[in-house]
Design brief:
The complex is a heterodimer.
Chain A (H helix, E strand, L loop, with lengths): L1 H31 L6 H17 L4 H24 L7 H23 L23 H23 L1 H11 L1 H6 L4 H27 L7 H14 L4 H21 L8 H15 L14
Helix pairs in contact in A: 1-5, 1-8, 1-9, 1-10, 2-3, 2-4, 2-8, 3-8, 5-6, 5-8, 6-8, 9-10, 9-11
Chain B lengths: L1 E12 L2 E12 L3 E5 L6 H8 L4 E8 L2 E2 L5 H6 L2 E4 L11 H8 L9 H11 L1 H5 L10 H13 L5 E5 L7 H17 L3 E6 L2 H7 L2 E6 L2 E7 H6 L1 H8 L2
Parallel strand pairs in B: 3-8, 3-9, 6-7, 7-8
Antiparallel strand pairs in B: 1-2, 1-4, 4-5, 9-10
Helix pairs in contact in B: 3-6, 6-7
The chains are: A mainly alpha, B alpha/beta.
The complex binds adenosine-5'-triphosphate and magnesium ion.
């Protein structure tokens, strides 16, 4: 029983990371209808920035806040300079753009900070949470930060005018322009927010997987699985998908004999394929019926 | 005073030219009807005013040329466009749709009051204000579309076939409201209709458009009483 609770809580902690990354993926997907393969590398790069800021003497939370700001601006700039000109380009051009961004961020990080793994501090510590053996302070912290961020985002989209405009631009860009929304800036804003959300995920996972240019590879795959599971058209679904994938991954590798850590990744991929076959719109995704 | 002046407007879809150089004007606070058969170019005319289709020619709104500015900037000048198909934000609630109508306004304080006023014009929207807009009936969605457009506090409203797909009784209601809105909110209306009879009842002026050219214009009364025009262009 204790093992089960332990595995579920640990699953929720990694699930929170997947949820953040899946949300970032879905935000960009909603804005431009493409999956950003470079989302993980963007998060990794942000995490290196946070690390660098701490090397320069900033405290954890100061570095964290500054990293969010830098990541937001970076995301907006990426959209304006790189992807906005591609708006009407075919799918393959977008894919090439994402792969290029992936490769560039990966090598620049490698060149600047080299490929050796680095320790990344946890602001919460790694001892047991409230003295319990079930969950570490860092894992509890991940869940706490993720929930705080998700609630803030929920409030933002639900109760602010700019959040409403963002939703409108993502769901019906033509109608949005007809009420006076500048949809191009909304897309850029979506990129900025996705980039900042990814930065949070990166900073939270770095103490667990260590900091290095390839740290987000596996995480991004799980996040894609989460986003597909929850539904690419549903931010809420993607968050739910993140937690489900996190818990599922942990339980399977603990209880199904022979799976272990090596087979965890194929399971994520199997999950993506299964969902696509059975329910292509995901758990909470809407099937969009287009009127002609 | 002239609110909208269109002069020599041509519009293109790729190589296809959909408007052959049309000119018309619309006075402040008045209702103008744009009539014509399927494919005549009515929708294209409205889209060209909002720069949603490639076009040449002069369009002036309140003396300002609209050439080269984005659709959203045209809207921000006070031109609310209810497109063919209504442009409802179907996944959002009725009230969110109304808020979106006012999203570009700076005077955020008075938005709540305006929403209340829309509920007075359209009581059915008040009863359904938390409902998802996509689940409203066709008539309710058209009411919502007009209310959303009014939330901009526009000086000009472009309506593309507001009667489309609605039962005759609902259409009557809707046009009665449009007339009321025109008088009370002092908003000029350019209405595209295939239901010419109704449109002519609320309009002061009318233009008949055929294959991209204006073939007839005059006061709504003239057009409505001219047997020849009615028979050959308006089909009733
Ligand atoms: N997206 C498009 N691409 C190519 N041609 C188009 C496009 N939209 C309209 N057209 C053409 O332009 C012409 C005018 O179309 P428009 O939609 O303005 O007509 P309309 O008067 O609004 O007709 P309806 O009453 O059927 O809505 C038509 O010949 C149509 O085929
Ligand atoms: Mg039309």
């Amino acid at each position: 029983m204790e093992l089960l609770t332990n595995q579920i809580l640990a699953g929720l902690a990694t699930g929170a990371i997947y949820a953040c990354m899946a949300l970032a993926v879905v935000m960009i997907y909603q804005a431009i209808n493409h999956l950003n393969f470079a989302q993980g590398e963007m998060a990794m790069f942000s995490t290196f920035i946070a690390w660098q800021l701490m090397q320069w003497g900033l405290g954890f939370w100061g570095a964290f806040a500054l990293t969010l700001v830098i990541s937001f601006i970076g995301g907006v700039a990426l959209e304006r300079l790189l992807f906005n000109p591609l708006t009407n380009a075919p799918v393959l051009v977008h894919v090439a753009g994402f792969i290029a961004l992936f490769a560039i961020l990966n090598s620049v990080a490698g060149l600047t900070w080299d490929f050796t793994i680095k320790q990344f501090p946890s602001p919460f510590g790694s001892t047991g949470f409230l003295g319990s053996q079930l969950i570490s302070k860092h894992q509890a912290g991940i869940i706490g930060v993720a929930f705080a961020m998700l609630s803030l985002l929920y409030g933002f989209f639900r109760f602010t005018r700019i959040g409403l405009a963002l939703r409108a631009a993502a769901s019906q860009p033509e109608s949005a322009r007809l009420v006076g929304i500048d949809t191009r800036w909304m897309v850029a804003l979506g990129w900025g927010m996705a980039s900042a959300i990814g930065a949070i995920a990166g900073v939270l996972i770095a103490p667990v997987v260590f900091l290095e240019p390839n740290m987000m590879g596996g995480v991004l795959l799980y996040s894609f699985a989460a986003a597909v599971l929850g539904g690419l058209s549903s931010p809420f679904g993607s968050v739910l998908g993140g937690f489900i994938v996190g818990v599922f991954e942990n339980l399977v590798s603990t209880y199904v004999p022979g799976v272990g850590t090596e087979l965890k990744l194929p399971i994520a991929l199997a999950l993506i394929v299964t969902v696509l076959v059975i329910r292509p719109s995901g758990l909470l995704g809407r099937v969009v019926v287009k009127r002609v | 005073m002239t609110l909208l002046a269109v002069d020599g407007l041509r519009a293109y879809y790729g190589q296809v030219q959909a408007l052959q150089g049309i000119s018309f004007a619309l006075e402040e606070g008045t209702v103008t009807a744009l009539l014509g058969a399927n494919g005549a170019g009515k929708t294209t005319t409205l889209r060209a005013i909002c720069n949603m289709v490639r076009s040449t020619g002069r369009i002036e709104f309140d003396g300002k040329p609209l050439a080269g500015i984005s659709t959203e900037s045209v809207v921000r000048l006070g031109i609310a466009h209810v497109p063919q198909g209504r442009g409802t934000f179907s996944a959002m609630t009725v009230e969110e749709n109304l808020q979106l109508g006012a999203i570009s306004r700076k005077d955020t304080k008075s938005i709540g009051r305006d929403i209340e006023r829309m509920y007075e014009h359209f009581p059915v929207l008040k009863r359904r204000h938390t409902q998802q807009a996509g689940t409203l009936s066709g008539g309710e969605q058209q009411m919502l579309a007009v209310a959303r457009a009014l939330m901009l506090r526009p000086r000009l409203m472009l309506l593309d076939e507001p009667s489309f797909g609605l039962a005759p009784l609902i259409v009557r209601d809707l046009f009665a409201i449009l007339r009321k809105v025109n008088l009370e909110e002092k908003v000029a209306i350019l209405v595209v209709e295939q239901n010419a009879q109704l449109a002519l009842e609320i309009a002061q002026k009318a233009y008949v458009i055929e294959t991209g050219s204006i073939v007839m214009s005059g006061s709504a009364k003239e057009i409505a009483t001219n047997e020849d025009i009615r028979k050959s262009y308006l089909g009733y």
